[in-house]
Specification:
Helix content is about 55%, strand content about 5%. By secondary structure, the protein is an alpha/beta fold. Helix 2 packs across helix 3, helix 3 runs parallel beside helix 10 and helix 5 crosses helix 6. Bound molecules: zinc ion (ZN).
Length: about 240
């Protein structure tokens, strides 16, 4: 598989090719020129025609995303499609990122292959956005904060669910999900930080237990869309109870 050497690590064995995404402390995937200008540059970096319609479909129909959008709103961080999403061409094989400095989710239109991929990327990045909203996340200097959010995003976004189901079917290995989450979190950190795999691993190990068991706002690990729909229903009911108090 093309891309950084880490992208073909053991965690991705048997998994359909997936790009690591990034929670960016800076926007390294954006064009070095500083963004769209005019003329040729503008046309080079103009959103691909598929990106916006796929995003719209994701926002309107994907149960993971609908729950996260509700949860963000509930936490006072309502998401606006125009303001908080940006379709861009990205370097390497990164498929998306959360830019904490602008609270914007970047969707790498040159690397997002289809609707299912768009669903996963938006879900993953919205989990970072949710963490950014609910907690004072120190993305820039505290590697454990980044590690925690990457563990949660890998665990709850469905990044590991497809492979998980395949492995469960074939081998009944429940622990494979945990292994997948751990490995993907490490890859995600390495995609945005210039640190050794050992350091990234240690950060993930330090936070794994508590962050793997933090399922907010899903309340459970949503292994597939049906679980996600149940989780959304429960969230809406929870919301209702609160507003009745
Ligand atoms: Zn991430």
């Amino acid at each position: 598989m093309a891309g950084p050497p880490d992208a073909s690590g053991p965690g991705l064995a048997g998994e359909p090719p997936q790009q690591p995404h990034s929670s960016r402390q800076a926007p390294p995937e954006r064009p070095a020129q500083g963004g769209p200008q005019s003329g040729l540059l503008a046309s080079l970096f103009a959103p691909s025609p598929q990106c916006q319609p796929m995003l719209l479909e994701t926002l309107e129909t994907n149960p993971y995303v609908r729950l996260l959008l509700d949860a963000m709103k509930h936490s006072g961080c309502a998401v606006d499609k125009e303001r908080h999403f940006s379709c861009e061409d990205c370097n390497g094989n990164v498929s998306g990122g959360f830019d904490a400095s602008t609270s914007q989710i970047v969707l790498c239109q040159n690397n997002i292959r289809n609707q299912a991929h768009m669903n996963r990327v938006v879900t993953h990045e919205l989990i970072h956005a949710f963490d950014h909203c609910r907690a004072h996340v120190d993305w820039f200097t505290n590697i454990r904060h980044l590690a925690c959010s990457e563990v949660r995003a890998a665990n709850l976004s469905g990044d590991c669910s497809l492979v998980n189901e395949i492995f469960r079917f074939h081998f009944g290995l429940k622990r494979h999900h945990q292994t997948c989450v751990r490995d993907r979190a490490i890859l995600s950190i390495l995609a945005v930080r210039n640190i050794s795999k050992e350091v990234a691993k240690r950060a993930v190990d330090e936070v794994f237990e508590s962050c793997f068991n933090d399922h907010e706002p899903f309340g459970r690990i949503p292994h597939n869309k049906t679980y996600a729909r149940y989780a959304h229903r429960d969230f809406q009911n929870r919301d209702r109870y609160y507003s009745n108090i």
